[in-house]
Specification:
elongated, 16 strands, four-stranded antiparallel β-sheet, mainly beta, 3 helices
């Protein structure tokens, strides 16, 4: 809830509009709402307005500008709201700056519809910069492990970390426990291993699982698949 305050000696009628929309619900409806969206505030009084967020799909890209419009307005009254939504408490997502500006995939709801009755899968991928590897330097990619539930800890585990490390990939931390209402950054690093006479690309799919939290994942766990690619320069 937030309050609109009328400091004038006259009653004021306001209207709330949403602009600059990001993601919408699957049916095209806006996931944000303000109640009441239009009302009259008597002189020297205030009005409580409730902002709600009701998504019906998983997405990191819900956003809108809330605009408060009143007659004879001289100054803008607006601010940006953002929202994220998942079907379970435990989540893993790309928190790097470039992920926030990437265009939305037109097929972004396809997997959600197919997985509605079964086990969910989170699939991420990263190709580390070739130029950095060519200089034999380390690259990093930041992910976020979160638990957006109100109670119950959860955890993220991986089953083939040793194989990934042999190819030059590492995680810091390598998963772990996340308490309710908190989140933990996880950095994926790549340092090219010693190469051979020819340059090549190392590639692996890290396999893991998110478990726990409240609500818990359907099927007991969310399958995690992280495809990593890193360049290995030739050793001269």
């Amino acid at each position: 809830p937030f309050e609109l305050i009328n400091n004038s000696p006259f009653e004021v009628t306001y209207t709330i509009q949403f602009t600059n929309l990001g993601e919408t619900n699957s049916g095209g409806l806006i996931p944000f709402d303000c109640v009441p969206a239009e009302a009259t505030i008597p002189a020297e009084e205030r009005k409580t307005v409730t902002l709600t967020f009701a998504p019906d799909v998983e997405s990191l890209h819900f956003a809108a500008i809330i605009k408060i419009i009143v007659p004879n307005q001289k100054e803008k009254m607006e601010w940006r709201v953002v929202g994220r939504s998942w079907r379970q408490a435990m989540v893993l997502y790309d928190s790097s700056p470039e992920s926030h500006t990437a265009p939305l995939d037109v097929n972004r709801f396809k997997d959600q519809m197919e997985e509605a009755e079964g086990q969910s899968t989170i699939s991420l991928e990263r190709t580390f910069p070739q130029a950095v590897a060519q200089a034999n330097e380390e690259s990093e990619w930041e992910l976020m492990i979160g638990n957006c539930g109100g109670k119950g800890a959860g955890d993220l585990t991986f089953e083939n970390l040793k194989e990934a490390e042999e190819l030059g990939f590492s995680l810091d931390p390598a998963g772990g426990k996340v308490d309710a209402g908190s989140k933990t950054p996880m950095t994926v690093k790549y340092k090219p291993p010693e190469g051979g006479p020819l340059s090549m690309w190392n590639e692996i799919v890290l396999r893991g699982a998110l478990k726990g939290g409240d609500p818990a994942p359907a099927g007991g766990a969310v399958v995690v698949q992280i495809r990593l690619r890193g360049f290995v320069p030739a050793s001269i």
